[in-house]
């Protein structure tokens, strides 16, 4: 095995014991903590009050002691503090006190378990169609031959004309319920990671803002502070989450593309 391969293998071992998503999946309490997160935090758009969530944790603990013979003796507040430390929960301060929301790591853990529970196969006609479309776009983006690109566009136009004629003549047929369900599952699968990705970006931005605030209180020279902020902002924008967010924002800000998506959704 090459040195690069050995380093990658060791890195996988380190990630398996340090990544919050994997530590949550491996936790002894996962059989009642994951359902707790899924029921009370995952559907929430923003945050929930600490007092309200402590009550939900107390109820879940009681059920765990009765149904699973759970022996833990930590209070709900101390458990939440531990989950924050483990980066399974994020906190936010408000006028009324501490509020909780799921971390991007917990969102990824729930998504992973849900995909396993649903038992969906990733091999489908819709998935293969998505792959074929992505490969075609990649081929167009990398082809240096303009005439070949034009030929591909002409072929697509001819295919669209053929489909148009079939629709006009009533020969196109109607999609079956199974085909529609398969395509819907593919759309949901492609968008399933977005909440965790955007939550990760939000967390990174918030952490950076806290650093800037501390530097401001420490009377860091303003020029240095601004330069550092702009540099960090560029780094955030270059992350996979940042790239996805910028593409998503551009798509929504484009009146034509946004209108097309809204029309399709309707």
Q: Tags for this entry?
A:
266 residues, 3 domains, mainly alpha, Arc Repressor Mutant, subunit A, 74% helix
CATH topology of the largest domain: Arc Repressor Mutant, subunit A
CATH superfamily of the largest domain: Winged helix-like DNA-binding domain superfamily/Winged helix DNA-binding domain
Beta-strand proportion: 5-15%
Shape: globular
Distance between the termini: 54 Å
Low-confidence stretches: none
Give the number of DSSP strands: 3
Please give the structural blueprint:
Layout: H1 3-18, H2 20-26, H3 30-40, E1 48-49, H4 50-67, H5 76-85, E2 89-94, E3 97-102, H6 104-118, H7 125-142, H8 146-168, H9 177-191, H10 194-217, H11 222-237, H12 240-253, H13 255-265
Antiparallel strand pairs: 1-3, 2-3
């Amino acid at each position: 095995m090459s040195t690069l391969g050995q380093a990658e293998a060791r890195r996988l071992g380190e990630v398996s014991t340090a990544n919050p998503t994997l530590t949550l999946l491996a936790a002894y309490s996962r059989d009642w903590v994951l359902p707790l997160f899924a029921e009370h935090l995952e559907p929430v758009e923003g945050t929930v009050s600490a007092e309200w969530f402590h009550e939900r944790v107390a109820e879940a603990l009681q059920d765990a002691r009765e149904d699973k013979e759970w022996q833990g003796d930590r209070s709900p507040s101390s458990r939440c503090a531990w989950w924050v430390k483990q980066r399974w929960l994020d906190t936010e301060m408000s006028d009324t006190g501490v509020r909780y929301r799921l971390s991007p790591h917990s969102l990824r853990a729930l998504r992973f378990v849900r995909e396993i529970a649903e038992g969906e196969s990733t091999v489908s006609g819709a998935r293969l169609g998505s792959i074929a479309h992505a490969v075609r776009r990649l081929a167009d983006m990398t082809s240096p031959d303009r005439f070949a690109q034009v030929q591909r566009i002409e072929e697509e136009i001819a295919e669209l004309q053929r489909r148009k004629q079939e629709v006009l003549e009533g020969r196109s047929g109607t999609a079956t319920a199974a085909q529609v369900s398969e395509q819907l599952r593919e759309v949901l699968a492609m968008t399933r990671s977005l909440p965790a990705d955007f939550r990760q970006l939000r967390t990174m931005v918030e952490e950076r803002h806290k650093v800037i605030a501390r530097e401001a209180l420490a009377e860091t020279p303003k020029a240095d502070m601004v330069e550092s902020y702009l540099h960090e902002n560029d780094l955030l924008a270059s992350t996979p989450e940042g790239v996805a967010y910028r593409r998503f924002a551009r798509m929504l800000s484009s009146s034509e593309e946004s209108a097309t998506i809204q029309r399709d959704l309707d």
